[in-house]
Amino acid sequence: MEQKKPTTLKKQIEDRLKEEFKDAIIDLKEVVGGCGTSFTLDMTWEGFSDMSRLARHRRVNGAIKEEMPKVHALQMVCTVTLRTPTEQSKVAAESPAT
């Protein structure tokens, strides 16, 4: 009988987000260092179009509420449209190395 590999917290969060936000573009990175498990999330989904930034963050937090007690910090950017290459470069330069 083959044993299942344990699922990482990052994988659990990604799977939950993909299930909740169909057709979303999800870029979840684990931030190494610090005092706990931290992540950065850059997510694009058309369903965010009528939501404020706070409502978007609440929706994401609600989707991963079961995983959140294991997370020390989550920095997120939730957008409706894809970023331009210039914006992507700026975000990448400002993001902590993973």
TrEMBL record:
UniProt-listed Pfam families: BolA
* Single GO term (MF): 2 iron, 2 sulfur cluster binding
BP-aspect Gene Ontology terms = intracellular iron ion homeostasis; protein maturation
Could you name the Gene Ontology cellular component terms for this entry?
cytosol; nucleus
InterPro entries linked: BOL2, BolA, BolA-like_sf
- Similarity annotation: Belongs to the BolA/IbaG family.
Q: What is this protein called?
A: Bola-like protein
Organism field: Coemansia javaensis
